[in-house]
Queue: 2 jobs
Job 1
Amino acid sequence: MNERQRAALADTVLQVVLDTPVRDIHTHLYEPAFGDLLLWGIDELLVYHYLVAEANRYGPVPEERLWELPKRDQAALVWDTLFERRSPVSESCRGVLTTLQALGLDPRKRDLPALRKWFAKWKIGDYVGRCMELAGVRSICTTNSPFDDAERAVWERGPARDPRFTAALRIDPLLLEWPAAAKRLAEWGYKVKGPDLTPGALGEVRRFLGDWTRRMKGLYVMVSLPPDFEYPSAAPSTALLDKAVLPFCRESGLPFAVMSGVKRQINPRLRLAGDGVGRSRMESLEALFRGSLDVKFLITMLSRENQHELCVLARKFSNLHVFGCWWFTNVPHLIDEITRMRLELLGLSFTAQHSDARVLDQIIYKWSHSRRLIARVLADKYADLAEAGWQPTKAEIERDVRQLFGGAFEAFLKA
């Protein structure tokens, strides 16, 4: 394949990738019916924890004082620190600029008050549609926890559901903070008497999972695990998994999503921005997947060092679906590296990306940046095929991209 042919192939792949709608299978967004829980706009973009952590490196305000400021002042501080006083070269800062540019705004004017006025004109329902259109997103899956009091109150009122959104049931407190979670279940009318994991209590946990997945119409059950999570162990999490969560997933057919590697609050003064990363114990995950071959698992990992082990693990377990470049791996260098490795080891049997967006507007830049990176990797792989005598057609490229952008996930849900 000569250079002209390579360039033509790369152009075709890029256009297909840009034109293919994606199913965003993991975010921290909310449907419009959840009101102020759905974050959006310039101030929310600027006080996103990625940027807060970066701004904190320059020490403009001590962490304990930052949270005493009104949100507008926090945003102005981040804007001044990261965009006015130095060039915004980080991926998080670039993302803000990409988003503003896509929305038709000129970030070069460096006019934060004018940006605020522009965003204030939007109605949230319309703005959701605009962001999804610009991002090329056809469906957004939210992360939903009954243990969040503000969120649970909305679910209990029976919100008007938005067909553009789907939900996933998050159960971190249930598995990782069982004594406190047991108390909450009892308060909500479940027959759980203290922290003892009796057969009756475990049955009530399964009832809780069923009640909330039905209420949310949840696509999957999920948990975010620390890197030192052990399975099996004497901790309550093992009994809860073996006798409640996994049996529920087995019977319902819902996947269990595991997001592994986050170290919570290594700097608690930074709040959400204070979380870190650690290498997960793959032996525990291997034992979990091997012991439940009839349960479907979704898996993504936070540590770069775990990515190769994860690909090898996924080759051994067909009940395992790998997805996305999560959090600290959602930067261009690692997206490129991880996507190449997954294609080389897993073929097309994974979901290339999810936005992990916490602020609605972020879906614009996260998908814009990821699409171009994924297109570059795919173009290289198709060129390799052409050199080996296999020339993919445009229709075949379109088929493959649909798989990577949600089709493989949908097939996995139905399997």
Note: Residues 3-414 form a domain with the TIM Barrel fold (CATH 3.20.20.140).
Job 2
Amino acid sequence: MQWTEQQLAIVGRAAKGDDVKVLAYAGTGKTTTLVGVAEALPRRRVLYLAFNRAIAEEAARRFPDHVDCRTAHSLAFREVGRLYADRLANSLWAVRRELSDPAPPEIKRLDGYRTPPEPGQDVRAWERRVRRANASAVLHVVEAFLRSADPEPRYVPRDVVDLAADPRMAEEWKRDLLRAATWVWDRLSNPGAQWPVTHDVYLKLWQLSNPELPYNTLLFDEAQDADPVISAVVAAQEGTQRVYVGDQHQQIYAWRGAVDALRRFQAVSLPLSQSWRFGPNIAEMANRVLVAKGEAVPLEGLAQFPGLVTDLADPDPIGLTELHRTNAGLVASALKHLDEGRRPAVVGGTASLAKLLEAAHELWSTGYTSHPELSVFGSWDELLLAVQEGQQEYAPLTRLVEQYGSAVPSVADRLRREVVGEEQADVILSTAHKAKGRQWARIVLRGFASPVQVARDEQGNRVVVGLREGEANLLYVSMTRAQRELHLAGLQSTLIADLEELAGTGKIPAGV
């Protein structure tokens, strides 16, 4: 390929041994650029730190042999995780029964912060419900700790603070929650204990061990969505050359604790703004979002491939990729395509989704399931309570079950049997989050709304409040997956009008 001046500048600066911060827009060849950096450092031990295993495996096929392509979890497992291999579970919530049936003193202490039972109410039933809810609150605090760089539990999420019946007792409630979370962490981190642990537990233990990575140069990819734990490890590597790479506008995991390490890293900033993925028409739509976020550097499309942007809701489905805002929308679309005789594929597969749907239906219909992730919930109401208390990963699941009801088993069976692989598909379906890092020729967006937040004043007039940054990032990521065609399904005119109105109000961030 012919290198751009921007790419040459990055490779040249890194070849001198300098720390570099690469601000890489969508499709601008960041991996190719990093391969160039690695090739310019043939005598150094280089670590490419990947966002997930699939990216690490793909990178291993592209980088030269002196580059180690790994995920942080794989590094942590080698040093710490192997000690916990026989205790690994998919969810920390597998320990909730240990905390509520019967409840240890650390959990019982929390009963006094809850609304007391009503006169005539079954006290035993109240105790079971409250202690399970308290166990959930404690685990929520533990999970926040696992996603932080803190040396011990110090933070109680806002939605957990609000669970105290009396706001005047909020500080005491937080104190006892942190005490209980510390007690839980001591048992989770004990190699001789029997409680199940997650991959994030040994990752946190690895970070707390202050590891010194045996590399001269560290290439930190997707730094805009970095786990605080991983960011802390990278930041602590004194004497190691670091190249941070990412796009602030593609930060879409802040809801689960991710931080933008790019903003915090102090180094020379060099841009990658020439996209090799799409042409100027798609770039223009993406730039509307970037301008609304206060970005001054435009994304450039390839002039020889203009690209097509439409407001079509139903383009020809054959060879199309649908990007959905929610899992529920994806499942409904998959069933629609099956009913109409097409062969849909789902990015990431449907096996785990189908199994979890069946387990949730079992819990909904019988009050019990043996599924390892859902067996901790003693009833459907308990699962709904967990969602209300902040376990939002279960929210799409509960919506699907309530939507399809008794038809869930047949829905799960169809997903498992009839959805095909991407190579055999007429149409590909993905959520926006699963689409990150991918690209397709033709894309239509489903279930998205304008990221501009509006309200009504006292006279009922429409007022622009500002930009919902998370939604703007997700929309930008989704639009920039398209290579040749982008169909906005009725969103285009509303989006353009809202963004222009936002610009007129001046309520745009100061820039990045």
Note: The chain has a mean pLDDT of 89.
